[in-house]
Amino acid sequence: MIVWHVRPKARWFPHDWMASGAPLVLRCTAMSLNDPLPFRLKITGEDTLDWRGARSISYRLDGLLHLVGEMLTFEWAATRHTQRVSLSGVKDEVDESPVGTVEIPRRWIARARVRGGWWAPRLQLWAQRIDAFDGIPGARPGTLTLRIHRHDRTHAHAIAEAIIPAAAAALPADSGSLERRDRDVPRLKNGS
Fold first, then answer.
1. Gap between the Cα atoms of 65 and 142, Å rounded
2. CA-based, 20 to 30 A from 179: which of 25, 33, 69, 130?
3. pLDDT at residue 188 is higher than 70
4. CB 27 within 8 A of CB 4
5. What are phi and psi of 83, to 5 degrees?
6. CA 112, 130, 147: angle at the middle one, nearest 5?
7. Sequence-separated (6 or more) residues with CB below 8 Å from residue 171
């Protein structure tokens, strides 16, 4: 798949750029499913204020999603930035963590969808198992949201479309049935 990104060389609005006659920068990117998808995970920080001063901790997690064969490989590196302000001065600390990696079979993914449009694109993954994304920071049970850059939207769409056939093939043959099976419902010890 070849994707052309066209943008003006200067940072102007489109109508200003057309009137100015500024040169265009054409960039051709050849993408395949073997190319990694860069992403960012959102982790909330914390702010505290006490008698010792103010402390603000923020996290930045950047990673790559690889789609290789029947496996999804997530790898990321985390950076923790701590700012302390007190009567004795201001201190900044930056801590880098080692690279984390989690591999998940494609058949464990129930749905994959690119959301957010142009402004805040993200790849959302829903798993068939509640523990599928265990170990990935910022993942909720059974769901994971990867924030992606705008120019990677087409690559994210291609990865989402490649995941969907594997997820559909992994469903059991009678998955179309919506009837409730009482044997699948967990029971309490008192029989209710």
1. 17
2. 130
3. no
4. yes
5. -115, 130
6. 40
7. none
pLDDT tens for 54-100 read: 999 999 999 999 998 889 999 999 999 999 999 889 999 999 989 99
Give the type of residue at 188: L
**What's the pLDDT score for residue 164?**
77
pLDDT at 174 over 50: no
Number of residues written out for the chain: 192
As given in the structure block, the two tokens for residue 118 are 């142009």
Check if the beta carbon of residue 62 is closer than 8 Å to that of residue 75: no
Best CA proximity match to 163, nearest among 106, 115, 123, 104: 106
Residue 16, both tokens: 């200003």
pLDDT mean across residues, the chain = 77
Taking alpha carbons only, the member of 47, 104, 43, 112 closest to residue 78 is 43
Distance (Å, whole) CA 55 – CA 85: 6
Q: Which residues pair with 67 in a beta bridge?
A: 72
